[in-house]
Specification:
The complex is a heterotrimer. By secondary structure, chain A is an alpha/beta fold. Chain A is built from 21 helices and 35 strands. By secondary structure, chain B is of the alpha/beta class. Chain B folds into three domains: 9-228, NADH-ubiquinone oxidoreductase 51kDa subunit (Rossmann fold, 3-Layer(aba) Sandwich); 238-321, Ubiquitin-like (UB roll) (Roll), CATH 3.10.20; 326-415, de novo design (two linked rop proteins). In chain B, 42% of the residues lie in helices and 11% in strands. Chain B is globular and about 75 Å long. In chain C, a hairpin with a 2-residue loop joins strand 3 (130-132) and strand 4. A four-stranded mixed sheet of chain C has the order 2-1-3-4, covered by helices on one side. The chains are: A alpha/beta, B alpha/beta, C alpha+beta. Chains in contact: A-B, A-C, B-C. The A-C interface holds A 158, 164-171, 179-181 and C 39, 42-43, 52-55, 57-58, 61-64. The complex binds flavin mononucleotide, iron/sulfur cluster (SF4) and FE2/S2 (inorganic) cluster. FE2/S2 (inorganic) cluster (FES) binds at residues 32-35, 43-48, 60, 62 of chain A. Chain B: Belongs to the complex I 51 kDa subunit family. Chain B: Keywords: 4Fe-4S, Flavoprotein, FMN, Iron, Iron-sulfur, Metal-binding, NAD, Quinone, Translocase.
Amino acid sequence: MIRLTIDGQEVTVPEGTMIVDAAARLGIDVPVYCYHQALGPLGACRMCLVQVEKMPKLVTGCTTAVTEGMVVHTQGEAVEKGRKGVLEFLLINHPLDCPVCDKGGECYLQDYTFEYGPGRGRFQEPKIQKVKNGPINDLVLIDQERCVLCQRCVRFMGEYVGEPHLLLEGRGVETVVTTVEHQPATSQFTGNVIDLCPVGALLSAPYYHKGRPWNIERHSTICPHCPVGCSSLATTRESHIIRMEGRPVPDRDWGWLCDRGRFGYDFGYHPERITDSWVQQKTTSAAQATRDVAEWMQRTLTQYGSGSIGFVLGGHFTAEEAHLLRRFAHDVAHTDHIAMVRDVKGYLPLSLNGTFEDVAQADAVIFVGVDPYEAVPVVHLKLRDRLHHFPQLQVMGVGPRRLTRETMPGQDYLIDAEDEAIFFAKALASRLPNDSRVQALIASIQDYSLPVSDADLEVFGQKLLDAQHLTLLWDGENSDMATVLSVLADVRENPTAVLPTFGPVNWRGYEQAGIDPQYAAVEDLLTKVRNGDIHMLVLWGADLLREFPDRKLAQQALEKADYVVSAQVVPPLDMPYIDALLPVATWGEVEGTYVNMEGRLSIGAAGVQPPGQARPTRSYVVNWARLFRQEWQDDAWDVFDNAEGDVLIRADAAVASEITLTRPATKPADGVWTVIQGAWVVENGLPSEILEPRETEFVGRISPDDAARLQIGAEGGYVQAQTSEGSVLIAVRPDPAIMEHTLWIPRGSRHDWAQHLEGVLTLMRPEEVPSV
Amino acid sequence: MSQKYYLLRNREIPNIDQMAVYQSHGGYEALKKALNEYKPEELVDLVKKSGLRGRGGAGFPTGMKWGFLPNDGRKRYLVVNSDEAEPGTYKDREIIEQNPHQLIEGIIISSYATKAREAYIYCRGEFLFGAEQLQRAVAEAYAAGYLGENILGSGFSVDLKVYRGAGAYICGEESALLESLEGRRGNPRLKPPFPAVAGLYGGPTVVNNVETITNVPAIVTYGADWYTSMGTAKSPGLKIFSVSGRVVRPDNYEIPLATPLRTLIDDYAGGVLPGRRIKAVIPGGSSVPLLLPDKLDTPLDYESVLQAGSMLGSGGCIVLDDSVCIVGATARLVKFYREESCGKCTPCREGTYWMTDVLERIEHGLGTEEDLDTLMDIADNIGGKCFCPLGDASLGVLVSAMKFFRDEFEAHVREHACPMGAKLYDTVNH
Amino acid sequence: MKPEWKEWAREFKEQYPGANSALMPLLHRIQAHEGWLSDETIHDVATLFDLPESYVESVASFYSLFYRHKVGKNVVHVCVGLSCALAGSDHLMEKLEHHLGIKEGQTTADGEYTLLEAECLAACNAAPVAQVNLRYFERVDLERPEETLLGTSSEKEVTP
Ligand SMILES: Cc1cc2nc3c(=O)[nH]c(=O)nc-3n(C[C@H](O)[C@H](O)[C@H](O)COP(=O)(O)O)c2cc1C
Ligand code: SF4
Ligand code: FES
């Protein structure tokens, strides 16, 4: 640790800290443009000039590391003159069009000019003319004249993300930031450059000229699109969310968002948004629908008694709403049949659940079935961050496709999803043959063979044991992994942490509210509906046909129930079976708690009114209670009771009492296509008009070799899939991560054809399909 | 003036750029001597004793620079800076075009001394002929066994490559040069680490100027005492001065350091044109302050020139006579820095742009009294605040010109025109 | 992409131990043959070295001798440095502009000549100086510069 004095105050900071960061610890703000802690020092803008005693000239606080006993002044005549000079330089070629600039009021250049800048302009020469409002892509605009060449955006895309879609072109005062061959940047992280740009050079295209600082509000919230739940700020104006920005959390989070999260905020007022109630195919008022549903519930209860109504939760509700529903179910609807929709079978006990700190500390990470870039994009950036600080980071992928990628290089173990747990178990057994826990684990699968060599198993097993801090990301597909993971954590001497990447996004929150998160729970509930033990089905945000993998069971349950009530934001695939469709308020319209994949609690803000007749879960529940002639009393439940700070308290890990693995069924015969699924946040069901230009229809993916055989170009094309059930036209593109004879489709896709594509026998070019 | 040449030997010996000619005049004997009679450390000591200082501009003691290399077993590099682009300087070009073997011999000896396994000559992109000459000479040296594996049976090996820049003055700055040599934009690097610790490809690296290295064979041949017998104690030895501008015989002159400026201009370069008077001299390349005629007796050594208010720099000596408009000349030089600013840091990028505009406006009679103060203030806002020395370099002439010739700037403003017709060159007058 | 580019790329890659040092030599050589560096060339070079295109473009655009726009068969650089200016280089430039009917920075309609400014070419003793395809022309005659500079077709640039 180094001790130094800044503006008369002493501070102690770690070695290698830059003066600006040391000053920040004392609450002293040294103005910067080019410097960003995540990107490291550059020293280009010269805004951060400070005076260090015994140094002949001013130094840049962003590139000068602290030394013992250093005495720094961030104020004084010389410093102020220096800053004023730099600001003036930045302004001479700057258009000074603040009144029409979206960043007006949120701009460092404006702020610093106000605070430190020259009084009036002395520059009379013509300014250099550059491109104004050119596209970076459909979502981001660049005004090169406003650019101060701080390079943050270029360095972020190139060094940080590893997708160098921006560049500096030219030299000297003619230098500009532009895109490769002036073509749109395609990275899924481009929107971050808007936040990074200290001036108004990089702008959000959808927000362009939509708001001014005095007519907008900014709400601290989280992003609802994936289990990361990135901390963000929602900008609202006249009850519309018109922008999302990243919200850095000191010492924990840089505030990056992926473009899906940053620009996909418009699902709340998408043209498809449900704003009226539908009862038996007719629109009606929400009040009437509420009464109708209450009557159905009463009728069901009268006829069949308690336990005759089932509730399935999904969607983007808060933990408090989940709690309300559970209480309502129990107290008013007299049922304990409440579950949440699950699209994979795995469940992770909280005791094994790690946090992003486990990514920041990891020396080895394993992706089990999941490519974080696709499923939880910002985790990919957190991993990149770790890779920067710790280049030796071991990255491994275990799953039926390649899970590492150019920007996150590592080793892939290509293992069928149903064999993932066995692969881990055998790897452990190869290194710890005498451990009783491991022996139990492999007891039932001793003779089950995997397509990997013993040597590979041993190497992998050794890596599992050697890692100092092992962090796994798990897609939940192979449910036996939970058992393996608990044994793994138990046999390892060093920390083991698992981050679940499956949904629903707030499943931990629902779990805290007392709703059983296990796949078996929802499966059991639907079976009861199918068997006629439950007579009414209330789907709160859940869309069974889109989300529940056992489509047949879902369909039978939907058909069998006397009443199906569905509260939704956009029309569900279940629509044909629904008796009452209720418009419900969602993220952004209701305040409440979300628990992310770390088990971290965050508040989602209510910034806008739900549109039309959409109303919060709470209104429905309270109304129904009243119609049941019950006084609704709030109870004292508080999800934060279970948290230390804002993270859920982990119980001590206990190794599962039953340590056995299921033996996978025999593999289908050769020649049948393997269909694999994965979470892809871009295709997670919530529609966005803003993101439409960047969407592809070709959401299915096949190997490049297969694509070549089917004459499908890089952008994708249509093929006819012959399945055991018939023939479907599907849209696919090549992806080197996919193995031959394998078809990857996103879970919960908006594309109907992508639901439950099973038993694919062949893929053919459409014109080759024999006429039936 | 008859003289013996040690660096520009091409002036005495025709075709010394050919291996055979160079060898028949004692070429590569210094290399043999170095390999046979010296351990690397002893050579470093020899160069330290000779007092040789870097000829690239900063005048840093060469032996001391070599001594900075950490002894940690990493592969070392020697990089020779042949990016000569400082206005008024053209000495290195003569060496690489006309006497390349002496440079190469110097590189091999210096590599041996610094234990560099690989050496590069970074050659300015515009020097196409120079690069061809170097390439050819390097090939000859390989063929003769002076480069490559186990040189002359000594067990010492070094490889030498010629690398072409592509038009960027900033690549003369050593860290920008290394960036460029690694195939990147020529933006200067953050220091520390200095090249000695982390230079080319991250390895310990010595960067030296062409002229610096060309001195080395002569020092090995004639000894440190010979070298220190010339010049002063702190600035010993020989230096090439490139004289240009308004003189009768603009040329490179190889003379001992501490030779008076007046001798260089009058005796060597033949003085100013008939009927003209010296108005000011830029003694060390375009980045250094002007000297007025009252300083003509200044000995040309690093300390004396500094004392006189300027810098010896690269030794590019531009002579301005009384027909030259000082505002025009200043505008021209500042514009050079604007064209060559790499654009990384704000004060240099924007400041040189702004100053050039203001100066050109003044030169054409469109300036105001206020502009003069603004100019000085812009200079103050650049000075000491840039990422690398290029920004400061743009100020040397400007600030001294404003100090010594403020009346001339004011005359431009007052008369709304350049009193000398806003032309640096007058066809009628000549 | 010309077939020989691959060979050159390999050759340069073998010559340099690290980083992307082979990039500039390849750009030089390709430009010596093609005259300039088109978008396609940048793309091809990026492919040859497995570098991001943005990287190659960013590097190429930094250096004034890499031409990112089509230039004439002969590129004439007139030194505008101070020493040359004192010897009449502005006058020289004007004469050439007049003779070629173009302005500095432009290319003649027949694609023969491109006229460019050069910063100090390190030949101040021989001012005014110009280069045609990087070959020096010293003490250029101010009255009839075209006779020396444009008369005979000058030797083409070859990359050592
Ligand atoms: C903007 C700038 C341009 C420079 N140009 C050159 C140059 O063309 N040739 C050179 O030898 N040194 C040049 N230098 C100095 C080099 O950075 C470095 O100090 C020198 O090459 C070291 O060699 P020496 O110690 O032998 O002088 C330049 C420095 C700066 C700041
Ligand atoms: S002073 Fe700044 S802009 Fe100028 S050349 Fe150096 S780093 Fe580049
Ligand atoms: S913030 Fe320090 S130089 Fe830009």
